Amino acid sequence: MIEYQLIRSKRKTIGMQVKPDGTVEVRAPYLAPKFEIDLFVRAHEDWARRQIARQEKARAAAGDVKVMTDEQFRRLKKLARQYIPGRVAYFARLAGVSHRVSGVSIRCQKTRWGSCTANGSISINCLLMLAPKEVLDSVCAHEVCHLLEMNHSARFYSEVYRIFPEYRKHYAWLKKNGSILQSMVPRGD
Q: How many helices and strands in the chain, by DSSP H and E?
């Protein structure tokens, strides 16, 4: 069985994540028995090994990637703050939810490209400025559609495809190349 770090919290289900550095993190409810967690890990071990291999391949490919200087990173965040809110507003208009967007924040998150809260606060990762424009747009469209459906149901994805028909193609680019973008962040951040 693969090694994993266990994090218990107030959740109802067991979940597994392979982090960008290749470590496996398992989140489980406080009262979930250890044997049940181990069964879950064993059942998803092949998936985790595929993710680890994919990330190792991406890290190897990123070996030639130059890490941004602190100044370049500051400029990137500044550009993101100027550009991304307009893209979010554009997709919010397409989705008919402009009135529900309470704010747009720009962050540099290690495990998320975007997020949306129930109160309408949308956060987008500044590293998306380094991706093709359509990739950034796919994340903006995705997060805006959460104001219609706060889940990843079929109804949610029908809204995403309605306002951004090529979502799947650009999301695939991000899954394949996202770790390269992450490797460009200055070491201190």
A: 6, 6
